[in-house]
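Anyone have tokens for Enolase? Sequence:
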Amino acid sequence: MSNPYVIRFVDAIQVLDSRGDPTVEVMVETVGGGIGRAIAPAGASRGKYEALELRDGDAAKFKGRSVTKAVSNVINYIAPAIQGIDARRQREIDRIMIQVDGTANKSRLGANAILATSLAVAKAAADTAKIPLFQYLGGIDSRILPIPLLNIINGGAHAGNELAVQEFMIVPIGFETFSEAMRAAVEIYKELKSVLKNMYGASAVNVGDEGGYAPPMKYVREAISTLLKAIKNCGYDPEKQVRISLDAAASQFYDESSKTYVIDGSKLAREKLLEYWKSIAIEFNILSIEDPFNEEDFEAYAELKKELKNKTIIVGDDLTVTSVERLEIAIKHNSVSAVIVKPNQIGTLSETLDFITLAKNNNIYTIISHRSGESEDNTIAHLAVAVKGPFIKTGAPARGERTAKYNELLRIEKYLSADATYAGKLLKM
Ligand SMILES: O=C(O)[C@@H](CO)OP(=O)(O)O
Ligand SMILES: [Mg+2]
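Reply: yep, here.
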């Protein structure tokens, strides 16, 4: 009998993401009839060292900038190179795509074309085997549900307000199960809506790109205090049950010419920003701060990490861009205690897994993450369970492209039933 895992057919089309921007969807079918579909996400606050998302040069005609070139690259170059190969040979397939592309940043075929194919291949293999993707990727001991970081106040490049910091997240750590943690998060999200309405009026509850509110605020302390109020109003303990995390995305408010950071309406030099983060972290018992400095400043991350003595997790995103090489530099400098994992920053599943392995081997937490431009694709929910936690970051508990991931995790929790464990119970923070 012929091998059912062999890739029989690869196809691609242009679909839309949550911002209405065109993006790439790839479909992979095996001889056995297994089907895998994956959609490439897109960032707004992109790191300088990310792999390239290939877009057509038609910005003047169409603001969304189409991806027809990336789509035709899948059909014309990738499909002929991978058809006929066993879909379980993920590394070989990823390597072939890297070779066909031939550039350092995947700019010829496009990281969007390559990633959507890479993920679709894994999904087609899992579908052929008739096992859930998380088990195909992580094996039978994949049974830990990740702790969600829920971005419920949006600022920076994701919102039209004056908040320099991009994301204010709640982290429901102190719960028995993933579904209980999600329930608490939803209660707080709803309560925050009432709090914001009372304080700033009805327009304050308009939402940003990731489904969090985008109130007319300017000050970081103001946003954090409002979150704390909503947490306490719901009767949750902000020390033990629901913590607060930030994604500063500081490269976005770093002014290269004056070497200062524009935050809370003032300009802060690097040393002043260090003091600023220190006081915020201690005052509010912040669980984690992502990208607190410009993406080039490995030393500043390290200084803050040292100062906070591991009480606050320092997270690399634009700093490390899911790249083994960048993470190696961060490890050398001791810059981070956690890293954001965004498969589209690097462009293949194998390279994403290599990055995760390097992080784990160095006791660095992984936070599997969405992008601000997302879709109904729920692959990262499976990836988060496959790598056994501890974190996932995928926006507010609202809007279909965000709930696609949370809902899949709820399904996985049900599937695992008595074997499911919540990472919040394992994390010592
Ligand atoms: O900075 C981030 O962590 C992400 C996702 O929240 O934003 P973007 O996808 O716009 O880079
Ligand atoms: Mg980030």
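The pocket of magnesium ion (ligand 2) is lined by residues 247, 249, 290-291, 317, 340 (CB under 6 Å).
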